[in-house]
Design a protein that fits this description.
By secondary structure, this protein is an alpha/beta fold. It has helices spanning 143-147, 161-176, 194-204, 234-241, 250-257, 262-265, 273-277, 302-307, 329-334, 336-340, 352-355, 360-375, 385-411, 430-436, 467-485, 524-532, 536-539; strands spanning 7-12, 15-23, 29-37, 60-62, 72-73, 80-81, 88-93, 102-108, 134-138, 182-192, 214-218, 316-321, 416-421, 508-512, 516-520.
Length: 540
Amino acid sequence: MSESLETCELALPLGQIKGVKRLSLYDDTYYSFEKIPFAKPPLGELRFKAPVPAESWSGVLDCTHYADKPTQRNLQTSVIEGAEDCLYLNVYPKQLKSEKPLPVMVYIYGGAYTVGEATREVYGPDYFMTKDVVLVTLNYRVDCFGFLSLKDPTLKVPGNAGLKDQVLALKWVKENISNFNGDSDNITVFGESAGGSSTHFMMCTDQTKGLFHKAIPMSGTVHNYWSDNPSEDFAFRLAQQCGFTGENNDAKVLEHLQGVPARDLVNHDLITPEHRRNGMLFAFGPTVESYVGDDCVVPKPPVEMARDAWSNNIPVMLGGTSFEGLFMYAAVSANRKGLDSLNQDPLRLVPREVREVNSEKENLEYAQRLIRAYFGDAPPSSALFMNILDLYSYKVFWHGVHRTLNARLAYAKAPTYFYRFDFDSPNFNFYRSKFCGDNIKTGVAHADELSYLFRNSKSWKLEKSSAEYRTIERMIGIWAAFAATSNPNCDEIAHIDWKPSTKDDPKRVINISNDIEIIDLPENEKLKIWDGIYKPDQLI
């Protein structure tokens, strides 16, 4: 990539920083300030704890390259990567001077709360730099570093340190973004998958009230069952796997874990077959905190938090992809025998939160409803592999998004725009190829919309006449228009009149495919079946 490396300096309240002027893939100039500290390094006694604001520095801080990813174990290769000193963010202003300050877009990455990174390798700002915006990407701690929870309040590890990293980063943006020509009164938070759920947590917690002005949760919300990890003794079990031989005493467990090398801590195997049967995807994630302290982010079940959240007064854009379940391709492929045994254990199709409040007889009836909906009269088996992936589209992703839409329609006073991403490319849907390799050639997988919002290390310069480039233009047009004006209608989709969702017609959705049109959500009939297995007070 050819780029001009003209440097530029800025004064922040904590000290001077040096950034660089870059050239995007499509020859747009922009400014890049990376690896700006927003918290003290979370090392030593700060490990597992809420972040502490960064301290001032002397001299000029070099912000010309992004920080390491947080310590994590790669979900595909199992290689341990990253650094524990990771609490940095990146700011990409299109311009440093303009008549009016620019709308600010803050992106929170996904990765099952277990992996993720705010780097140009994965989330390059190039496409957004066709618009007058300031893009911010931020690191937060993942896995046990971000989500270990202990019950003893004197230890100050109630959980959700990773969400508290996000809160502190948003406070930093609110206080500092005007130095980068950003409008501190026009901030949009958006994120995908666990980043979508994180965005929704940021919308639901009182800690962020007033820190941003609109939000875009993508393919993940607090209504997704995986957004709220059940309280289990994972800290003690992690300590045991890392050589701890004492009794289950929180203080001793913490003391031991704070002495274990960072790379060893993420190399755990805590999820049992029973956990998997209950749909648990990861050991460490957001949880209702063990006590309510001053910095508490999740004081009660998140579904309850959403009902009276401050963000019911701000505009939201919400949606998912048309074949989310391709995300589960590798896991289902590795356990094809499990599909053949579904008939013997149909209850595992029913979400744990549903099973816990119903009799076994009711749960078996719900399981049969789901089997009929996805397999028809045929018994579930590995021969019907794609059917189970379709079921996972709903169970893992779409039903949570649908519940959030309905919760917004019930409780929010501000508009909610509903989208469905359905653009299929043979070679530019990078996440389908990441999850499925060459085994599945079509379908719009979980996260595939990110291929059209961010440049990544696999992207190449497209012909501007291509359908892929047109999709980038539309996606960036919609996202940037919503950030600027709270309304996603823009020149790139000028032939469409996209209105906010209504209680009268909640299934109306904009479908972003080769063509863009307003349609009835194709998933709607099956979503009603999922609604029917929940008690009404559980749903929203």
